[in-house]
């Protein structure tokens, strides 16, 4: 440190040597460095000069200011010195006068003191002498507080002079007056209709008049309970007011009075210690107050809950929640006011109950809306003029039904979201029951309604119901749309709106379960549609077989009308189904335009065929009478042929649906044929009808082998049930069918 200060090359040091610094600089530095050093020194010098000027200017201004201040102080001190001298003179004068007065009154001072004391005593005596009259006057004016205050003030005087005969009489009069007042206050305290404020004021006066504390405490709670019950009864009659006005009346009346009673009781009996009472009096008083508080809050909240239940589904939900939020805030404030007391119940339970009830109301509305939508669909189907028009209209019906259900559910979920608004003072999700309620919106409302949809729709497919076929088709397609899109959209919406983690929950229903139920319902409805349409076709075919005399038939000249009607009916059905389900062919209309090759047909009588026929014809038109006698061959063929399942579930495609209907109709025709006996012409009529069906039914199916197999079975059964098994020539059969 000493070396640093003694450094001759340090410009900031007092030992700086300019000659040595310059000599060292010229010796060690280049020209460029010397010039840079010069510039730096010049710059530092200018900076220091500027700082020095600034410092001088600042100190100069301060110096000028200090000079002015000193000058003003001199002037002020001169004036102050004059004032002090004047004050000194006056104080001396005052002291002189005081000494003169003291000297003058020295002899009468003690006498004045005695007179002052006597005057004060006379005032007290005058107060006591007029006290009975004054107390009566105050009581007549109902100024009970002032009367009690004057009486208590007089007690100190009575305690000192009460043994005097004159004072003793006054005291007895005052005691009698206050005894009457005390009795009147007791009656007023017990009188019905007292407000909480008046109860508190009367209780305070009775305590000052030495009323027994424990009795007064019990009496106060009893009387306050009667008054609060009257307010409850009054609130029960306020049915015409809306929820917000109803709650405001309860807050301004019932809750305010309850809070006043509780705080007054606490201050009078719990916060104060009374020597004449037992040691546990305060503890017992606090327990009684706690019971009183919770009983009355329960009564009021039960009344509010009853009002909420009556308003659910009829009033405005937002108004109801605003009222409950205001009530919740008031009860929270009461908890803060009622020190040492525990309010066991709050409005959150009412709000959660209201959410449950609103969910139930919305669920009922959804079910009613769904029932109305189904009725509208049925009415539209009944009013349709033809199956073709119905086919064009089914897509609109399905779209309207699907959109109406989905949008209605979305609206309900948005309405219920009002319970979770962040500006409410309550948070139902923070409560365990509230969290279950939010999950209940998902499970009981949404999932429950989706299952209700599946159950109701499935009921239309029961064999006992008389549902129109097209209604079954509409409902089946609607369930399929829900399974493919609607279920995912709605469940994702409710999980997002209500922040529900359904993926990681073991108790919540998974989306796949509902989708599976919807698909099962769609499948059941579609199978019922196929069964019902197949039954309609079957009835036409069965009646046509059972009502005809097959033993006395004429030689066939045309196809029976029922076969044409069956083909027309299948065409109408295919048109309707094609409007909803995609075709399995590549043609624009969904109809097949060419038949499959004969090589793909493995029909019943294919083993007996000797020649090949056109592609649209089956091989059984080639049979000769001699070939038909080989019945044992047909039995062997049946053993090794694949069994055709008739009543199986169909796929959601046009070809599968129509094929299912055709299988039921042909199976019915087969069974009816097996129960009849045919003549030669009856057999030939069956041959013509079967060939006509073969010519037309291939257009409706993707695999005509099943159709050809059933037709071969029908003709084979007719051959076996025929008395004279002679078939018509193939060319003749073909001509008749083409002419038809």
From TrEMBL:
Gene Ontology biological process terms, A to Z: endocytic recycling; Golgi organization; Golgi vesicle transport; lipid transport; lysosomal transport; protein transport; retrograde transport, endosome to Golgi
Where it sits in the cell: the answer is:
Golgi apparatus, trans-Golgi network
InterPro entries xref list = Cullin_repeat-like_dom_sf, Vps51
Query: Looking at the record's lineage, which domain of life comes first?
Result: Eukaryota
Indicate yes or no for the key word Transport.
Answer: yes
Q: Does the keyword Protein transport apply?
A: yes
Q: Which SUPFAM superfamilies has this protein been placed in?
A: Cullin repeat-like (SSF74788)
Q: Which UniProt keywords apply?
A: Coiled coil, Golgi apparatus, Lipid transport, Protein transport, Transport
Q: Which is one Gene Ontology cellular component term of this protein? A: GARP complex
- Pfam families, per database record: VPS51_Exo84_N
Function, as annotated: Acts as component of the GARP complex that is involved in retrograde transport from early and late endosomes to the trans-Golgi network (TGN).
> What quaternary arrangement does the UniProt entry report?
Component of the Golgi-associated retrograde protein (GARP) complex.
Its family?
Belongs to the VPS51 family.
Protein known as: Vacuolar protein sorting-associated protein 51 homolog
Organism, by scientific name, is Drosophila rhopaloa
Q: Which gene encodes it?
A: LOC108053397
